[in-house]
Amino acid sequence: MRAMIFAAGLGTRLKPFTDHHPKALAMVNGKSLLERNVVYLQNQHIFEVIVNVHHFADQIIEAISSNNGWGSNITISDETDVVLETGGGLMKAKPYLEDESSFVVMNADILTDMPLHSMIAMHEKNKPLATLAVSDRQSSRCLLFDDKNKMIGWRNKITGDQKGVLHGNAQVEIKEKAFSGIHIINSDIFKKNNFEGKFSMIDLYLDLCTTNSIQAYDHTGSLFIDVGKPENIAMAEKLFP
Predict the structure, then answer these.
(1) 3-class SS of residue 64
(2) Above 80 in pLDDT, residue 169?
(3) What is the end-to-end Cα distance of the chain in Å, rounded?
(4) Which pTM does this prediction carry?
(5) Domain residue limits, the chain
């Protein structure tokens, strides 16, 4: 199985570090987020990794080269001309992933000890178009799932904005879950995508969830932190030595 790490973002929440560096190279106890996630994938026996780059792309490429991919075979998906967001970034990486039956995708700025092998096993058993790692934690934006753990929408809890296929059905028990930035995706998604250019994976899932199964994998209880903000670096260093 192959994996893709999203590392192209501008990392505006991590300023001032990202005024001079890509967020994927933020350090936690002497190791970059990118290195830690490459090793996390290795622990799940995944050694073929695609990393997309845009913001300070040269620094990421140099880090990978000088460390020999930290033991993995890492391919660069170059978005230096224009950042494509998560959905567009995935579509640009299609040549590296389309021959896999399924593949893992994860954000560079998260750290977790979630048992990825269990998530993969559930995905292979249920065979949805995508399986999304979620948990019960505070988040201003959440994904919405029905009582069968099938994605049916998205909600911004601050603004009240909502997207999806809810249709006001009071008989459906709606569960709010915070998305953890880890996906396992069937390669059929490349055939089903209706978007072009720059777009987000969440918009793609919202477009497809009415006719395709996009399921939740709840990893509540696992260590997890979004290291996208400066104050979370110190928290991450306590959780991930």
Answers:
(1) helix
(2) no
(3) 27
(4) 0.95
(5) 2-239
